[in-house]
Amino acid sequence: MIVRVKDSAEALGRMASNFYGRPSEQLTLVGVTGTNGKTTIATLLYQLHRALGYKVGLLSTVCNYVDDKAIESTHTTPDALALNALLAEMVEAGCQYAFMEVSSHSVDQRRIAGLKFAGAIFTNLTRDHIDYHKTFDNYLKAKKRFFDELPKGAFAIVNVDDKNGMVMLQNTRADKKTYSVRSLADFTARILEASFDGMLLNVCNREVFMPFVGRFNAYNLLAVYGAAVLLGADAEEVLRILSMAKAVSGRFESIKMQKGFTAIVDYAHTPDALTNVIDTINEIRNGAGKLITVVGCGGNRDKGKRPMMAREAIKGSDKVIFTSDNPRKEDPQAILDDMTAELDATEMRNVLVIVDRRQAIRTACQLADAGDVVLVAGKGHENYQIIGDVKHHFDDREVLLEC
Question: pTM to 2 decimals?
């Protein structure tokens, strides 16, 4: 008999779920999937429900939490054994809710097999993880499978402004809900005012100021609001708590610099995410000052997006510094050569290539004047840089503060 790897992985997931007493059936478990926004949405749902008085668990890229106990995160979604062990620990601690990021890898590798989800959220879908999935269609199918396998009685809430939003709902048995910033939906929001301090939003005909920046965050906040209401929370109380929430680490994190310019640290590591952040900055600064962008691409990952990242950075910035991200086992200079290979002399006129990331950030700070914005993209919350197989301590925010 031939046992396929994915079949055995699914069996392991179900065995792990049974071994730990099916902890997901004792928790109200909600999963968040999509290319961008997963960490922000899952973390805000965790913060929100704790503020509502519940004990809550969180499984995210940045950190895992069993109520207020922090546990280091090594993967967006842990392997089946670690995942069920964490969920069991949440049950033991008296948690009533758990919010988790669901990566395409975890769906494809059946890490979430055996878990019972009360709800699922879809954010958006753009090019990512092609090095693993090989094609965008495979990537989409992995995300869709999560929704296809939701049980009857769960809810599925999707961003209908993304062309793949309705695709996620095609075959699900879950209760179908939608959210939108541009069109009609079950949950809607409109940006009324925006600054680097936050946004005034109209959320389902209620005006509220949120300390978050950017249209992409309007989507994230709306997804949080919609999911919380579907879970039974009072709409007014949800908005009140979100109006006092803190930005998620490394997600459009703003630092006021002594020279009078603003530094933004963001995890944007896909072309679409980088475009969203740059567009948001340009909308707010409205032609005032310069935008200096520092960005790179990871090694041993999708090479096809390298020139795409370079073009998006140049298109919206006054000055760009290409530098190392996590080179892993690739030559950092070769990665930068891939990024700049398709740029002509005119485009390269406002580009610097500095392999050393610390020096690249310092150079950006030296070039910045009062009123400018320095965007340091790609690593966000990460406090390390992977060179070879070794993680070296490195934090973009620390380097900016040194400046």
Answer: 0.79
Judge whether 263 and 374 are in contact, CB under 8 Å: yes
Distance, C-alpha 203 to centroid of its chain: 22
> Are β-strands 63-66 and 69-72 bridged in parallel, bridged antiparallel, or unpaired?
antiparallel
Q: Among 313, 309, 306, 314, which Cα is nearest to 332's?
A: 306
Is residue 384 within 8 A of residue 391, CB to CB? The reply is yes
User: Nearest to residue 224, comparing CAs of 359, 44, 33, 29?
Assistant: 44
* 362 token code pair: 């310092």
C-alpha separations of 274 from 18, 216, 279 in Å = 41, 11, 8
Output the CA angle 163-200-278, nearest 5 degrees: 55
Q: Judge whether 44 and 242 are in contact, CB under 8 Å.
A: yes
Q: How far apart are CA 357 and CA 376, in angstroms?
A: 10
Q: What is the pLDDT of residues 89-114, one digit of tens each?
A: 999 999 999 999 998 887 878 888 88
Going by C-alpha positions, the residue among 200, 206, 166 that lies closest to residue 183 is 166
b (16+ CB within 10 A) / e for 178-216: bbbbeeebbbbbebeebeeebbebebbeeebebebbbbb
| Average pLDDT in the chain | 90
- Encode pLDDT of 266-292 as tens digits: 999 889 889 989 999 999 988 889 999
